Prior knowledge:
The structure is a single chain. The chain folds into 4 domains: 5-224, Jelly Rolls (Sandwich); 235-275 and 514-758, Glycosidases (TIM Barrel); 286-509, Jelly Rolls (Sandwich), CATH 2.60.120.200; 788-857, Immunoglobulin-like (Sandwich), CATH 2.60.40.1220. It is built from 12 helices and 54 strands. Strands 2, 4, 9, 10, 11, 13, 14 and 16 form an 8-stranded antiparallel beta sheet that branches. The model is unreliable at 1-19 and 773-785 (pLDDT under 50).
Amino acid sequence: MKRILTFISALMLTLSVGAQVDNYCLRLPSGGSVTCGEMGELDNLRNFTLQFWMNADQWTSGATLLSRGDGLKVQLGDEGALSFTLNETTFTASSDDLAAGSWVHVMLICKSGVARVYINTTLKATSSKSYTLPESTDEFTIGGDTYVGRLDEIRVWSAVLSSDYEYFYNTTLNKWVPQLDDLVCYFKLDQELCENVVDYKAIFVPDQSFNHHGVMNGGATKELCTDNTKLPYLLQGAYTNNARFYDRAIDRDKYLLANDLIILGSEIQVDNAGHVVALSGNDHGTLLDEAAQEDSFEGRDGVLHLNGNGGMKLTQGLLNPTLTDGVATGGYTFETWIYLNKWTEGAYIFRQESDDGTEGFSIKLGPEEKQQVVVSVNGNKFTNINKMHTGEWIHFAVTVNVGDGTVRQIFRFMYNGSSAFANANYSGTSTDYTPTNLSNYTAYLGENLDAYLDNTIIWNVNFSATNLTAHMSNVLMPAIGKEVDTSTMNAGGGCYLYDDSDEPGFDSYSQDNWLKIMASAYEGYRGYKIRLSVQGSTSDGWQNTIAKGVNRQNFAKDLAALAEPYDGVELDLEWMYGTQTTLGQLSDSIRKYLAADKTLFISCHPSGPYQFPPAKMDNCDGFTFQNYGPDKGLFSLDNYTKSITTLKNYGFAPEKMYMSYSTTTSGGYSNGTLYTATTGIRNGAVDDDYSPVTTGAMECFSYGGYNYWFGGPWQVYNRAKACKDNGLQGIFYWDMGNDVATSHQYSFPKWANYAVNANVDSLVTVVDINYPTGIRDVSLDGVVSRMQLQTNGSTLTVALPGNAKAESVEVFATNGKRALRKSGNATTLAIGTLPSGVYVVSVRTKGGNVYSERFIKQ
């Protein structure tokens, strides 16, 4: 089977991906065409659907838009009418919408042989007889004679298309479209970097053995389309956060249903001068002096080499265990692979303490003759001997292990999976294991150490011997579709794998790495943005914090720095009631410091209208309106549509309004009283027995003894449709982790995409054309009405029907590259220099017709 698509798969981790995908259409001059293969799937059909958008530059009666010989043809009729030929019989459809210079959607549905024509989804004609499409070896051709204008969104279905989703007439399709099996071909036209017209069915089903990629002829081109307002490309947003990213195993397809990923990854420090911090610290290390990264050493890849004259500087306050009544009850852990080249007494493996060693925590080497490892907590020593050695890789760890309360049991030392404890003869008498004032001190690795390090991790939690043994072969790391315990990952202070020679001190337990991992879901795709959202650290209080001008400036500066690797930022500072004067002033400060190419969105909760100051709205690129729970009334479709009107009347520009739905439910109610927090629809709301309410009304399910309300898939669809119908910016949801798997028939973002496709697009630059019927042996015997070819391996002879005269002859490889061209009334071409393979010959006649055929060069 031939490879169908070639993708550019290099991911731009800086995320400078530009705007979401642009809409392109097909531009046809007179004689321009696209040939798409014979399309034998249409043979003998009595049920099929044909859809396309058209915009004729001039209305030329008889101009052909689409054809498959005389068995299927769509042409311009008299002005205001289209002519349809089915099996050599013609009928017409008229509409006031059919006029030159206007975008019009045309749909032909044939059901049990009876054909109906819809113009902008309104029925305009019904055939008077029953049709069956004939068997044909004619190619499906777009254009080809005197049609001059544009075409877009050309789709052929081998069945009657359901009207459930308004025939998808004013949105694009993705691989989750219902009736995918009935889709014969789909020409979206948006792959402007590819010389051919891409058949998206081959993208949606990449393992099929054939495709209908089109070859452009006669000056046909792809053109940026900005004037079809009836086919809007809108935002489809999805919220996620670190906790749900860690433990919900969000599948890749859910990312690809969102062209605007919003990561809740930072927070304002309430009553702390307005500073903004990442929820997962970016604790990247800096190599000092002669420390260096090496690709490999003694069987381990990506290591840090310390030669006794350097180390790695980490960040201030890196080790920072949670304290309860001043005690690190959750413990903490240091682990690393270490290969000692030379024993240097007093050299530090890890240090985060005061200069005099009376505060903080450190691990260093003691006397070599004892092979002593010394752990210091606030100057109190816990030592272990005869386990650390030079000249071999050792997986070494120190973790809090209070044990029986004796000094010896305070810490567990681990060496290659074996536990050891402090040696009573060499340790002090204190049982204190909580370092003091850690936030005051910078952490360092490997000061004066002559060694190699690998996979160094600092944790703000303790681990069992079993856990640490498992870490020897498996560094805990989130990934797309992988579930990792949230509480464990939230305790990761810093992780240094030393695999990246450009950034050897990169912290893999950081917001920066979570961004890289999430962005990897879009590898090979384009048309998306990833933004950073800021939450309040409590449910209230942020209003008072930003009331001070200096705090707003601190906020804006911090946010601008955190936003560097993102496409934009969003403020999700709940809850917003009353006129938000200081929030408007904060938007002034953010615009002052935020890079010009970064977007600014502000998220709002309902209150009257959402009272962001109208005079400050120009600071923002959009407003995310959270039209969902926890109150059950917010799951009403009626309330949702009324809120759109309210927001417009308040002064929000429709193109900046970003509405929403939720994959979470209301809180749990009992006898009309709210008792519990929200839950996700993944928790049984749309189980295998679920049947959605088709009216879009809010729905209810019982869970754990309480009733929960939610919107349901039809309401999600209708909410997205309302955004499109009202000319809004798009629709988003909270959140990815609470939806069912994307493969589930009621995955909510999939239903939102039925109304407004996210248009996250595979990046295709080259296609291999592989038509399903193979190559026919063409001879000059007999009289036919199509071009005929004859070849002997060194020359190609062309014979046109009737008295047609050639103006030019071109030969193309199947990747669309032109191999030969000859002007004038040529009948033969020398092809001896062409490599063996399949080619397409395209002949343009002096009358403006274009004929195309395939041949094999042996």
